[in-house]
C-alpha cells in the first residue's frame, strides 16, 4: 500500500510539471510581443484629401533570436502597410509604415493591420490606425519635402490648399512645432463656395543637422474640424564634418597631455581659426592653409577640471562666413594622491 501511494504521488508530480511549464510558456508567449511592438495604435486625426499621411510603428526584436515576419494584412484598403524588412536580427530594429490613402478615401476610416510572425515564435499581432479624411480640403502637393538642406542656409518650400464648401471658410493661422520652421500663408483666390491658399514654409539657417519629419498645423475657422496637419520633411547636412565625433579618453591625470588625431572636412576650402574645449587646454599646429580636408593632431590637457567630464570640442573656421563643427570629449580626471608617511 505504501508503495502504491508513492507511485501515485510521483505520477501526480510528473503530471503537474508539464501543466506549469505550459502555463509559464503561455504567459511568455502572450507578453513577448508587447516589447517587440511598443506602439499598437495610432490616430491620424483630421487630414486633408491627398495629404501625405503616414505613421511608422516601431518593431524592436527583443526576443534574443532572429525574427521573420511572414506577412501583414490590412482590413481596409484605406491603409497600406509597408514593412522595412521581413527579417529583423536579434537586437535589431525595423518598422511597419502605415500609409493612410487620403487621395482615394473620404470620411472616417480605420484599419487593423495584422502582423503574422513565424519565427522565432508564431504569433499574430494587431495594430490599429484611424483618422478622418475631410472631402472639402485638398493639399497639392500633399506634403512639403525639402530634400537636402545645407546647414546655415535657408530653404523654402510650399503647397496650396484648395477648398470647396462654405463661402465663409478661412485659414486663420498656421503653426509649426519647431522654432526653425517658419510658415506663412496667403489667400490667392476666392469665389462662391471655394477658396485657394498658398502656404510657404522656410527652414531657417539654425535648423539642427539631421533628418527631420515634422508637421505644421493649419488652423481654420471650421468649428468641427479646425486643425489640419501638413507633413514636412527634409535632411539638414552640416557644411563641416569632424571625425571622430566622440572622443573617449577614459581615466586621465591632471596635467596629462593627450593627443587626438582629427579629420575635418568641408564642402568648400576653409582654414581653421580656433579649437576650443571647456576645461581643457588645446594646442595644434595651424598654418592657416585653406583646403577641403584638414588632418591635424590636437594636444589636450586637463585644465583644473576633475571627475567625470563631458565637454564639447568646437572647431571654428575663419572667413566672412565662419562655421563650426563639434565633437564630444569624455574623460574621468582623477586627482593625484600623495601618500604621507607617519
TrEMBL record:
Gene3D superfamilies: Immunoglobulins
Signal peptide: 1-30
Presence of keyword Signal: yes
PROSITE patterns to which the protein is assigned, alphabetical: PROKAR_LIPOPROTEIN (PS51257)
Domain of life: Bacteria
Keywords linked to the UniProt accession: Signal
Coiled-coil region: none
Name of this protein: Secreted protein containing DUF1573
Source lineage: Bacteria, Pseudomonadati, Planctomycetota, Planctomycetia, Pirellulales
Amino acid at each position: 500500500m505504501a508503495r502504491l501511494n508513492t507511485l501515485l504521488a510521483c505520477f501526480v508530480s510528473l503530471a503537474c510539471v508539464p501543466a506549469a511549464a505550459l502555463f509559464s510558456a503561455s504567459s511568455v508567449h502572450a507578453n513577448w510581443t508587447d516589447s517587440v511592438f511598443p506602439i499598437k495604435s495610432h490616430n491620424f486625426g483630421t487630414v486633408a484629401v491627398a495629404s501625405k499621411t503616414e505613421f511608422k510603428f516601431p518593431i524592436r526584436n527583443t526576443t534574443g533570436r532572429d525574427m521573420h515576419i511572414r506577412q501583414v494584412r490590412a482590413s481596409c484598403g484605406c491603409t497600406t502597410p509597408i514593412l522595412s524588412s521581413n527579417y529583423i536580427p536579434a537586437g535589431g530594429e525595423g518598422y511597419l509604415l502605415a500609409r493612410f490613402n487620403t487621395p482615394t478615401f473620404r470620411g472616417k476610416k480605420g484599419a487593423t493591420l495584422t502582423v503574422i510572425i513565424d519565427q522565432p515564435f508564431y504569433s499574430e499581432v494587431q495594430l490599429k490606425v484611424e483618422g478622418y479624411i475631410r472631402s472639402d480640403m485638398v493639399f497639392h502637393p500633399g506634403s512639403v519635402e525639402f530634400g537636402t538642406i545645407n546647414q546655415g542656409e535657408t530653404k523654402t518650400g510650399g503647397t496650396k490648399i484648395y477648398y470647396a464648401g462654405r463661402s465663409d471658410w478661412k485659414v486663420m493661422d498656421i503653426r509649426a512645432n519647431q522654432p526653425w520652421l517658419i510658415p506663412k500663408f496667403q489667400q490667392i483666390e476666392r469665389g462662391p463656395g471655394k477658396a485657394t491658399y498658398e502656404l510657404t514654409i522656410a527652414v531657417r539657417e539654425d535648423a539642427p543637422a539631421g533628418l527631420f519629419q515634422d508637421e505644421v498645423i493649419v488652423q481654420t475657422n471650421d468649428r468641427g474640424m479646425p486643425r489640419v496637419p501638413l507633413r514636412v520633411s527634409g535632411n539638414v547636412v552640416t557644411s563641416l564634418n569632424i571625425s571622430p565625433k566622440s572622443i573617449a579618453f577614459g581615466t586621465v591625470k591632471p596635467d596629462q597631455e593627450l593627443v587626438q588625431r582629427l579629420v575635418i572636412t568641408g564642402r568648400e576650402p576653409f582654414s581653421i581659426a580656433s579649437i576650443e574645449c571647456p576645461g581643457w587646454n588645446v594646442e595644434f599646429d595651424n598654418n592657416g592653409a585653406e583646403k577641403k580636408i584638414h588632418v591635424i593632431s590636437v594636444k589636450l590637457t586637463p585644465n583644473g577640471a576633475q571627475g567625470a567630464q563631458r565637454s564639447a570640442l568646437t572647431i571654428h573656421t575663419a572667413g566672412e562666413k565662419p562655421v563650426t563643427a563639434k565633437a564630444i570629449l569624455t574623460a574621468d580626471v582623477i586627482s593625484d594622491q600623495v601618500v604621507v608617511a607617519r
